[in-house]
Design goal:
The complex is a heterodimer of chains A (442) and B (333). By secondary structure, chain A is of the alpha/beta class. In chain A, 28% of the residues lie in helices and 19% in strands. Chain A contains 13 helices and 17 strands. A six-stranded mixed beta sheet of chain A has the order 1-14-13-17-15-16, sandwiched between helices. In chain A, strands 2-8-7-4 form a four-stranded antiparallel beta sheet, with no helix packed on it. In chain A, helix 1 crosses helix 4, helix 4 packs across helix 7 and helix 10 crosses helix 13. Chain A is globular. With 333 residues, chain B is mainly alpha-helical. Chain B has a two-stranded antiparallel sheet with strand order 1-2. Chain B is globular and about 85 Å long. Classes of the chains: A alpha/beta (442), B mainly alpha (333). At the A-B interface, strand 15, strand 16, helix 9, helix 12 and helix 13 of A face helix 1 of B.
Amino acid sequence: MLRTFRKGGIHPADNKLTEKNPVQILPLPEKVTIPLSQHVGTPAIPVVNRGDKVKVGQLVAKSKGFVSANIHSSVSGKVVKIDSLPDLTGYKKPAVVIEVEGDEWEDSIIQSTDLQKDITLSKDEILEKIRESGIVGLGGAAFPTHVKLILPHGKKADVLIINGVECEPYLTSDHRLMIEYGREMLVGTHILMKVLNVRKAMIGIENNKADAINYLKGISSYLPGIKVYPLEVKYPQGSEKQLIKALTGREVPSRKLPVDVGVIVHNVSTAYAVYEAVQKNKPLINRIVTVSGKSLKNPSNFVVRFGTSVQFLIEAAGGLPENTGKVISGGLMMGKALNSLDVPVIKGMTGILIVPGNETKRKAIEPCIRCSKCVTVCPMGLEPYLLMPLAQNENFYRLENEMVLDCIECGSCSYICPANRPLLDYIKLGKVEVNKIIRERK
Amino acid sequence: MSKLLTVSPSPHIYGKDTTPNLMYGVIIALIPAILASIFYFGWGAVIVISVAVISSVLFEFLIQRFLLQKKTTIQDGSAVITGLLLALCLPSNFPVLLIISGSLFAIGVGKLSFGGLGNNPFNPALVGRVFLFISFPAKMTSWPQAQGFQTQYVDASTGATPLSIIKEGLDKGDSISQLMDKIPTYPQLFIGDTGGSIGEIAAVALILGLVYLLLRKIITWHIPVSIILTVVIFTGILWLVDPSQNADPLFHILSGGILLGAIFMATDYVTSPMTTKGMIAYGISIGILTVVIRRFGSFPEGVQFAILIMNGFVPLINYYIKPKRFGEEVKNG
């Protein structure tokens, strides 16, 4: 019996078109637009000026406050603009535009690809290195990694979970990383274990990635403390709370953090970024992005420098198909629909998915037949059929009591609804309003 | 950049279930019961089923189109189900005009007066059935003997159902062992060789329907299993206490409308609870009420009333019985 979480979940077709495509290095674009807020928390403050020459890996913006992250130049060249420019959300946010000239790296970065196994730095030095390198959670949430590594006072973790689940359809960036950079990822895992002072690391991977499971099992068998766990394929297993439940049986209480049950979760790509930062002195300047979709000519996995435009990325995968309706950043279940292709690739971008126009039209909303499928699939034990009308009728106090804030926005309810009801749309709206009320109460 | 992109909140893909899909799934699950009814009651069953289905769909169309003047929803298949379920709990010699009046009541009062599909608190087919039962009790309790296509539609030779034989016998002072000789054997009850409404008699056909509903994940096991188990346990206790006055559990399950009710009527989406815990509470209550009515009430059968009564409690069940929230009970280990 494979491990999985028990409550709810759905099985969308996984369509991993690019799982066998080795990662290719995307050519350098002519210019990059590097947003100063690619993470959860306070935007970084620029430390370069217009006209400055920068190298690959040079700091361009410094983190501000505790929950924030440094931003480094992903290319070498000249800073041509520091301005507010549209990001993924469509809103204008401060960004640094750099015109690419050559590809000159900071001298401190070790560019050789030799595996560097020995961890020589102390716990504090590692933590400082991770903070300096601007690493954030690369599974999509983009929460600054060093913040997650400094445990709140009095809290103790005994298990590190490395998230290689990748339960979203189409996405394969983590899958390819585990196969092509598995050894480095495991060293990264050891580094994280050292920082957190835990002896046990569990790597959770869904069973549809048998090659990655076998490979990692093979190369990790002699490593103390690290174990690979195949998981039953079920969405949303990549969600932190569901993965902790699947692997350890522990349930993170409502509105608490994983550390409250002694667990810290990091993504496989984050573990790899930690390896690069600590062992190779390389700040976070690129990542693997899956570009996929059934209508796309060459679905691929690319290593992309941050700031490269989505347009450039799609061109490299064969160009935007004529019949495209939506371009999604992230997965089809939780990703964001872009309103323009002239936006930059950022740290949290796991994939770019192309959806044909005929699949983007929502069907007419029908009356709820109370089939209770939304209740059955909700992994958090909520009742979406009830939350939607409560949000529509602005009954926010009842909404709070029905625990709307526990919703992880996985979209399983909207996915399953036979009457095409926009359950999650209204639940999200309700969450915003309830959060407002809670803030006012303080 | 001239291409306009569609922007919408996630998710960006959807499952394949649609309301009509699920409704037609229920209709498919009813096919074995329909075939069994025609096998046992011949033309009578054909007439009752066709009239009930056609009149239900027609009334839904006419009322929505001309009285409510809104979009008609007959294509979703729910009116067909109402007609089918109403037909399946009628005798095979039931007069056409009365069937039509039952359909009108079921669709007009039971369903559309509350706002149509999704809003009716009571199962429309049962509303129609109880309306007919109360208005025309004699017609609703004359059960033709099953003789296949030999069964007459008018002037059929009628007989009592096993449940009424037991009920009346006990009232006269006979003991169960005497009465058991007068009813069909259990294998006969299982395949449907007995008296009763056209759809309730063949247990095997109804169970086939249940298997289909479960395999296609149209319903979950909670409601049918909790009803049937409760009836088995409750009648089992009564039987163990006094076997001379109480029939055994297997008899109770195989006779009357328990299987039809538990599998197809209590599981109606709109009128049953939303959480698994709620479904089990609802199922247990229906089971208990059914046995209480059968054993202590004045009617031989009680499952329809039990379901209607519990339909009334569904909003309360949904309000008080909540699913177990994730992280509600912290287990660390």
